[in-house]
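thoughts on both lines:
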Amino acid sequence: MSVPPRLAPARRLAPGRLVLATHNPGKVREIAALLGPFGLDVVAAGTLGLPEPEETGTTFRANAELKALASATASGFPALADDSGLAVESLGGAPGIYSARWAGEAKDFTAAMDRVHREMTAQGDDARAHFVCALSLAWPDGHVETFEGRVDGAIVWPPQGSRGFGYDAIFVAEGMTETFAEIDPEEKHALSHRARAFEQLVAACL
């Protein structure tokens, strides 16, 4: 996706501790793997006992920024937050920013995928969908850098694969024949919405 030109250089992240502002184990694993080559001392917000802020934003960017700022302020270290989700064309972009909330308090993504399939079936046979990811890097002084990535594809049913998390088992990216939950994690890291946002973050801040 196109990225507007920057008016000023992004702030660079100095070596040291970086808090991953998420309590989602799947996201922790994936983001930590992406950060592996950069020698950062990565720790999850859950490990530090930091609370999960209420996601009151109306966009992926807004929610990523509020989560990153909350963890940076509470911990005193730079924090990286991800807000991402699945947008289904026939559902008007839903579940979108509510992707995690469709899984409920129990974070039951099997139920969430069932709901996607049920509501898509009621709307017709348009399987087009895309994943969106906003990555926000925040510092304790309130400075934030945000990057966005997107990958297009289609919904498949029934769910296939057990390697991913969230909605990965029902999403096949354009040009591929297997779901995100079937392919090798390294392959997903190279082409996912999160990877595309991360490429921009690396170029600007690392």
Notes: The chain has one domain: 17-205. The longest strand covers residues 144-155. The beta strands are 17-20, 41-44, 79-88, 128-138, 144-155, 171-173.
